[in-house]
Amino acid sequence: MSKLRIGQVAKAAGVNIETIRYYERCGLLADPGRRESGYRAYPPETVARVQFIKRGQLLGFTLREIADLLALRVDDATPCDQVREQAEMKLAEIDARIADLLRIRHALATLAAACAHGGPTGECPLIDALEHELQLDLDNSGG
Fold first, then answer.
1. Where are the domains of the chain?
2. pLDDT in tens, 35-71
3. Is 140 helix (H, G, I), strand (E, B) or coil?
4. CATH 3.90.1150.180, domain 6-74, yes or no
5. 105 and 143 in contact (C-beta within 8 Å)?
6. DSSP string covering 19-73, please?
7. What pTM did the predictor assign?
8. Do the beta carbons of residue 36 and residue 25 sit within 8 Å?
9. 4 in helix, strand or coil?
10. Cα atoms in the Cβ-side hemisphere of radius 13 Å centred on 12
């Protein structure tokens, strides 16, 4: 297959052109070089690389972490254990975020339940909590 233009890569990968340009600026995609016409000329495997990056983002990896994974992929001798370690670190990070969200959810549910139906906003515990120092202990409110 011949070289692809940026629009062809974007369409095949399911992203927009600016995403391709951004990945280039971040170093996730190599500079494709240019045709005599001035258009970028991407090798066909660029589509698979962009799809790899997007799938990594869907799993919660940052672009920096995806770059690390791509670097590991280049070396066939790299043991899969290194990739597993990165995945386990990402899992721990996600678990921590979920725990934080559950604490926040519990605090908000408590405030929402304390709101009197139809009462004046001047007596609303949620509004009061937002206007003043939050009295709920978000670190220990459970989930």
1. 6-74, 83-131
2. 888 888 999 999 999 999 999 999 999 999 999 999 8
3. coil
4. no
5. yes
6. HHHHHHHHTSS----B-TTS-B-B-THHHHHHHHHHHHHHTT--HHHHHHHHHHH
7. 0.71
8. no
9. strand
10. 16
